Structure formats: structure tokens, C-alpha cells
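Make up an example, fold above all:
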Amino acid sequence: MYMVQAQKLCKRVASPEGTLTLLDEVDLAVAAGEACAIVGASGSGKSTLLGLLAGLDAPSAGRVVLDGVDLDTLDEDGRARLRAGRVGFVFQSFQLLPALTALENVMLPLELVGSPAAGRTAREVLARVGLANRLRHYPNQLSGGEQQRVAIARAFAPKPKILFADEPTGNLDHATGERVIDLMFSLNREHATTLLLVTHDEAVAAHCHHRLHLAAGRLRDDSGPGASERTELPEAAGENI
């Protein structure tokens, strides 16, 4: 079963020089439980593609099917409801709410879907990412690695079927970024979450089942032999990020 599919996906925008084609008839299929990396040069349209696949933006042509639901059949509110129940996000800039503590940030998506045990679940997930002693800290009291771990905990807490990650290590130093990625893939395995990851880091992409390269608006599969065997990562990752 495919969790994310794109067919002939196009995105065009107006510019002073005329119409600019960001994505040109992109086809993509990611099976349930797989991890897929999208790589490419800065400005190649990777984040644009991720936004279209998540239903955050509408394509100029083509269609996206997310967990069996054709996004063309939904209005903006319908796409938001679909994401709330099935989709998680991790961003390069963390996107934590500064006025909320780590615990409150992780509780928020659980409360939005009506979880009766939001507090307990948030505490458990924060403990899993090594932040049991940081529950009452605000984002500005946390290091970059700690903030990204809160963001990962927030993304995984509602147990989404699909996780979209946009350059999740882009604002972290190399060592911290490696530990964050170890943690993300560890949780990915535990929850059998489908992972779609935009990254410029080839080492990160190497951990995925598939590696797709985006250039000049076109997507090609660079996975190569043995790509279906994802590199195994430590189960106890993330304790010292």
C-alpha cells in the first residue's frame, strides 16, 4: 500500500520574467513504513514538493493521494482535518510556540485531536527523547538540539501515519544533527511511520529506503542497489543532544 503518491505533479508561479516552473510532472510513490529522502540543490523545489505532498499548497496540475485520500477532493478545511489525524511535521526552524513549555508544545497536537491523555502521552514521549527533566522549560531555555527533540516528540506524539521532515538538521551542528537523525529513525522504526525527508545531507539520505534527486523541476530515483536495506541505527539515541 502506498502512503504518499504524486502523479504528474506540477507547480508554476508567476515571476517578472514570466512563468516559472518549479516542479514539472513529478511522479512519486512511497509505501507505508518506508523512509524516503528527497535531495537536491538549494532552490531546487524540495520544500515546495514537500508542501504539495502534505496538502499545505495546491499544485498547478497533477494530483496527490495521501493515505488513500485524493487531496483534490478536499477543501482547505478537509485537508487540515486529514493532516491533524494522520500527519506529523518536523521543520528546520523547529516551529515551537515560544509562549508554551516543552510539555505544552507536545500536548498541543494531542489536544487538537481530542486525546483524553494528552499530558501523560506528552510526558512519555518527551522522556523517550531524553527530555524528562525539561518539561517546564520554554524554547528559549533549550539548546538547538533540545528544541529539535521537542519538535520530534511533538510530531510523533499523536502517532501519525506519515511524517514530513524539512531539513530537520539544517540548524544544528554536525554531531547534534547526527543524534537527532538517529532519534528520528529510531522512532520511525518503533511506530512504523512513513517518513518523507527533505535534506541536503547525503549521510542522512543514506539511511533511507529510497533517495530521490530533484533537479530542474524533475525527480529521479538515485536509490541504487541495496537501497531497500536501510542502515540500522542505535535504539537508545538522543540522550545527550
Summary: Residues 47 and 166 are 7 Å apart (CA to CA).
